[in-house]
Amino acid sequence: MIRKMQKSDIPSCGEILCSVYNNELWQCRWTLETACAYLEDYFNASKFAGFVTEENVRIIGAMFAHEKIWWNNSELFIDEMFIMPEYQRKGYGSELIRVAEEYVSEHKLAGMTLSTNRYTPAPGFYRKNGFTDCEHILFMCKEAE
What span, in angstroms and rounded, lies between the C-alpha atoms of 30 and 93? Predict the structure, then answer.
């Protein structure tokens, strides 16, 4: 079951975020406190759109997104999406994408965008769900000295 996210879901989502990203593949070191603060920042955004997926009333995954205003038509930017490791590759992530597609359609948005780590299985998952690489966009960063 997928439902709209509530603020009370953040602690469960923080635990899942830690279980998904604190490993050799993603090389993160989230604490539950920082994960919850990070997710709460997204939740508090003025155009937040978030969903959780549940199995037997237990949250097993989530999508944190927001409407991103653009000059010709706003889009839904997926900030974070994760499924508990033991529930991955069972269709739950694809269902979250489907619900996001419905949101985009209902709100007459241009589509969805996101960024992810190219060296993980995530790009393959998103491509399988209809996303394409944006050749005209370059994601850049500058590290603090």
Answer: 21
pLDDT tier for residue 9 given thresholds of 50, 70 and 90: very high
Strand 2-4 versus strand 75-83 pairing type: unpaired
**CATH label of the domain that carries residue 49:** 3.40.630.30
- pLDDT in the model for residue 138: 85
How far CA 69 is from CA of 3, 24, 73, 107, 135, in Å, comes to 24, 35, 7, 12, 21
Average pLDDT value over all residues in the chain: 95
Alpha-carbon span 79 to 92, nearest angstrom = 17
pLDDT at residue 25 in the model = 87
Q: Tell me, yes or no, whether 41 lies in a domain.
A: yes
* Cα separation, 111 vs 101, whole angstroms: 8
